[in-house]
Amino acid sequence: MSAPERKQGQGQGQGREGEGEGASAPGRTDAPERVRLREVVPADLEVFFAQEHDPEAARRSRFPPREREAFMRHWTTRVLAGPDVLVRAITVDGEVAGNLVAWTDGDRRWLGYWLGRAFWGRGVGTRALALFLEQETTRPLYADPHEENTGSVRLLEKHGFRRAGTVRHDTDSHLLLVLGAAS
């Protein structure tokens, strides 16, 4: 779900997340030391484009990769220029690892993200989402990962998202998760 259009595959969290918050842990040599969020710069779009075209990421997200022109147009006119969009690049030790996006569609605020495969299973998504949720304080906040993308579902649930039903995108069933919904 790259903001603000349904459905870019973000919110699918393409990889498995490891334990921890992204800091070095005893016995873990792959855990990143510094996960940071920053403003997206034009050069990041090439990284995001390549990540979207990773076949395994596309399979997990159930989102078909876009052609370059459509991808760039979407990011420059809808995501980066969207008045209600909060978008951040995820970096690990200075390297672009992915992105997080929040946007409003109708009466709901949505969360989406994409993490490059090289960063799966290292706690990067866990730490990045924690940092993002400090900046994106709107609640309720919705996400809708593909139901078979268990890594993404686990990531969201770690941060307090609760299952609230299912939604359909074309022929695929996605879980609807919500953070901070009224009881």
UniProtKB/TrEMBL annotation:
The keyword Acyltransferase applies. Keywords: Acyltransferase, Transferase. InterPro entries: Acyl_CoA_acyltransferase (IPR016181), GNAT_dom (IPR000182), N-acetyltransferase (IPR051531). It comes from Streptomyces harbinensis. One of its GO terms (molecular function) is acyltransferase activity, transferring groups other than amino-acyl groups. Residues 1-35 are annotated as: Disordered. Residues 35-182 form the N-acetyltransferase domain. Belongs to the acetyltransferase family. RimJ subfamily. This is Protein N-acetyltransferase, RimJ/RimL family. The keyword Hydrolase does not apply. It holds the Pfam family Acetyltransf_3. PROSITE patterns: GNAT (PS51186).
